[in-house]
Amino acid sequence: MKNLLFTLALLVSFNSFGQTAEEYFNSANAKVQMKDYSGAISDYTKAIEIEPGFSRDYYNRGSAKAFLKDHTGAISDFTKTIELEPNYAQAYFNRGNSKKSLKDDSGAIRDFTKAIELEPNYAEAYFNRGNTKQKLQDHNGAISDYNKIIELDPNYGMAYNQIGISKINLKDYTGATIDFNKAIELIPDFAMGYVNRGLAKFYLQDHNGAISDYTKGIEVDPNYAMGYYNRALSKGTLGDTNGACEDAKKSASLGYDASKLIKLACN
């Protein structure tokens, strides 16, 4: 399972390098491990100047640029990687991530799709494509991608969470609750899962159940602003205006825009 959003090529030496290029490559990899991405970019660039036809230099430099949020530069390097190595699935995946960061969602989906064509069991590519479809309100398409992840890895808790979010958007609140249950079962200390399940219960008019879930989410993450905000809504619906006011103010103190709710609950 590839856990990093932008993965790096294996940190190995290659005999095809000239000695100096190899030294720059290895030095750059070491700097990446120390999170010195600017220094790594400089060393990858020097390696490219000496040996311009080696795709992993461009790929690793693109990944380092992505870590620094230079997504335009990253896309350029991932594109060069693909020119040199057209079947490199991770290059498409990383380029898709950078396109998504630049709000080129259609371009991101194309790249995630190509990564999947090249590597059909690429769970992260399905996940990121699903997230992008979800952003574009293609919730049925997103659910299809998340279900594919579950086929590949039945213990992928975040996939169940994302299915639940799409089902809420499709107004299938009962189905969403079932998926959030599974996400929480797989990730017991999952604050987002509890808060999301609370939202599904809110829409089902189970406000006491919603409050219980929001409270559990807040116990797991005391700084979860949306948990306080949503709990305020349920408390207000049940007539607990003092509790609603307190939670609304807490959510605001954590950076959530609760101004309208504070006016309703606290005056």
Distance between the termini: 51 Å
| SS content category | mainly alpha
* Mean pLDDT value: 93
Give the helix level as a range of percent: over 70%
Approximate shape:
elongated
**SS summary, helix count:** 15
Total strands: 0
Q: What does the main sheet amount to?
A: none
Order of helices and strands: HHHHHHHHHHHHHHH
The top-level CATH class of one domain is: Mainly Alpha
Q: Uncertain runs with pLDDT below 50, 5 residues or more? A: 1-5, 10-18
Instruction: Supply the CATH superfamily name of one domain.
Output: Tetratricopeptide repeat domain
The name of the CATH architecture of one domain is Alpha Horseshoe
Strand composition percent: under 5%
Radius of gyration: 23 Å
CATH topology of one domain: Serine Threonine Protein Phosphatase 5, Tetratricopeptide repeat
